[in-house]
Amino acid sequence: MRRPVPEPAGAGQESVWDYPRPPRVAPSPERVEVELGGIVVASTDRSLRVLETSHPPTYYLPRSAFAADVLHAVVGATYCEWKGRAAYFDLVIPRRTAARAAWTYPEPTGGFEALLDHVAVMPALVDRCTVDGEVVRAQEGGFYGGWITDRVVGPFKGPPGSWGW
């Protein structure tokens, strides 16, 4: 499969093709919020971004950024070749549940220890995620949890035909 042609990054932008592989974790001071059913269920200015070649950043929020009783652990796990075993949560508010919309790494592998006690959210499974007030666009494909903002350019892995990138 041919490697895609990276889009040129403008002033203040990052190209996901400049992100490393294996990925790295970078702190972010941006205001990150997650909304479900019209309620802000998580908010922080102390998130972490996982940056990986061809992927928009995935934001990991401190567990303490989530409202009380919103995170409900569910059965099942997946495995990431870089970060280890992921455990999942439903996001639950009185009027709504976003099934398996969040995940964490209870025992992150070497190099990803910073993700301990942090939770990522799949933007496509909640009403709205924002970064510094900008509404996030979900990474296509339903498998990856990248957050697309005007700050990053692609093309992004996820849509059909991009599995081999």
UniProtKB/TrEMBL annotation:
> Where are the coiled-coil regions?
none
Q: What InterPro entries does the record tag this protein with?
A: DUF427, DUF427_sf
Q: Which Pfam families match?
A: NTP_transf_9
Q: DUF427 domain: from which residue to which, for each copy? A: 32-123
The annotated region (Disordered) lies at 1-28
The residue range of the signal peptide is none
**Superkingdom, natural source:** Bacteria
Name the UniProt record assigns to this protein: DUF427 domain-containing protein
> Which organism is this entry from?
Nocardioides guangzhouensis
